[in-house]
Amino acid sequence: MPISILMPALSPTMTEGTVSKWHKKEGDSVESGDVLAEIETDKATMEIEAIDEGTLGKILIGDGTADVAVNTPIGLILEEGEDASALDAAPAAPAPASTPAAATAPAPAATLAPAQAAAPVVSTSGDRVIASPLAKRMAEIEGLDLGQISGSGPNGRIVKADVEKALSGGVTPKATASAPAPVSVAPAPAAPLPADSFTEAPNNNVRRVIAQRLLEAKTTIPHFYMTVDCELDKLLDLRKDLNGRSPEGDGSYKISVNDFVIRAVALAMKKVPAANAAWSEEAIRLFNDVDVSIAVATPDGLITPIVRKADTKGLSEISNEMKDLAVRARDGKLAPEEFQGGGFTISNLGMFGVKEFAAIINPPQSAILAIGAGEQRPIVRANALALATVMSVTLSCDHRTVDGAVGAQFLQAFKGFVEDPLTMML
Question: Exposed (0-12), middle (13-18) or buried (19+): which is 138, by Cβ within 10 Å?
Fold first, then answer.
């Protein structure tokens, strides 16, 4: 019996994937550990390796096929001694998803003749009908004649319940001789856009999952935001000094402002461990390790590689690790454990000149820090105006786990490390 190659679940959030490219052709021999195909997951493009030996007997899902459910057979391996006739007993190629039928206009609802209404007891005072304002409004909207409705309120006053009873009992809306009955006209469909006025870029798995998770985050997490300004001049001076001490060749480094930010976030989380948390319905989970995710832009969307145990790493180690993670993130070469998890995320748009912004939390984390550009701004120092390089940062918090006091304590600690960067060297 041939061995099925199944669409693997390469991440906890993956429910379907795309067969990007087969590295083996039908009839090729397969050894354990050989790369069979590239699979585009909800986060990256990854290689799947053979765990069995034999011959690739049949490819069930070809290159470029998207939306293949996890555990769906995508190919068949013939074991030693089996020939092509064994493929007849193997699973058939999955049928392609059917094209949804064109939506048809719903059939008009049948018009039912109103039931014969009993003669109403009319609530009047002279020529005036007594009714509550709400009852009058409802009757006006429904086109009912209040003179045909009996009132159950004090002194025969018509109330909301009487109008509802009349509607359910089939009282005929009134018609006027001067105005014809209104005709319900369906709105005209919107004119289609000319085909040459746009181009479409099909959504891949990464884009779809990002959209799903951001919508979930923004609609289910109670966000709130806090912003502080941090002076960067001491940090920039220290950065220049440290980079000037970098050796040539092996062991060289070039520290960025973002590397200082990662280090400051990690130390602030260590100082305020309540910010290193995630919400669950049963309990608030406080993480033991300080794992910092950093948002990296790729052609397919954002991905968040993680600097593990960032509080235990120096600036040069963070710098070199981050450069490697960013390159492999853009190439789609990260392993799942390198972007899944983390207790806190940094999103830095300062290099694009963005002064300030508020980021959306990356669930199940409880906070994300949005980093703006450092720019020259006037400040007051010793009762006098001065110029300083100032960076605005905005913390987005999940109020279920990180309330205002915890968020403020975290920002206070972060600002302290940034404005006195020598404390990050201790």
Answer: buried
Q: Which of 23, 207, 355, 399 is catalytic?
A: 399
* Order of all β-strands in the sheet with 16-22: 45-49, 35-40, 16-22, 65-69
**200 lies in some domain:** no
175 in a domain, yes or no? no
CATH code of the domain covering residue 9: 2.40.50.100
27 and 131 in a single domain? The answer is: no
- Cα separation, 393 vs 411, whole angstroms: 9
Both structure tokens of 222: 């109670």
Peptide bond between residue 364 and the one before it cis (omega within 30 degrees of 0): yes
Together in a domain, 246 and 319 = yes
pTM assigned to the model: 0.64
Same domain, 143 and 66: no
Q: Same domain for 297 and 419?
A: yes
223 is catalytic: no
* Distances in whole angstroms, Cα of residue 93 to Cα of each of 8, 40, 376: 17, 20, 63
- Using DSSP, state whether 137 is helix, strand or coil: helix
- Domain limits at 138? 124-163
Distance, in Å, from the CA atom of 211 to the CA atom of 209, rounded to the nearest integer, reads 5
Are both 7 and 156 inside the same structural domain?
A: no
Residues 15 and 154 in one domain: no
Number of domains in the chain: 3
User: Domain containing 128 — which CATH number?
Assistant: 4.10.320.10
Each residue's pLDDT tens digit in the chain (426 positions)? 778 888 888 776 677 888 888 998 888 888 888 888 888 876 677 888 888 788 888 889 988 887 888 888 998 888 877 777 777 766 665 654 443 333 333 444 333 334 343 334 444 444 567 777 677 877 877 778 887 888 887 667 788 788 888 877 766 665 544 445 555 555 556 667 787 888 888 887 778 888 888 999 999 999 999 999 999 999 999 999 999 999 988 888 999 999 999 999 999 999 999 999 999 989 999 999 999 999 999 887 889 999 999 999 999 999 999 999 999 999 888 888 899 889 999 999 999 999 999 999 999 999 999 999 999 999 999 899 999 999 999 999 999 999 999 999 999 999 999 999 999 998
Q: Which residue(s) pair with 369 in the sheet? A: 346, 395
Question: Phi and psi at residue 85, in whole multiples of 5°?
Answer: -65, -25
Q: Please report whether residue 194 resides in a domain.
A: no
**356 part of a folded domain:** yes
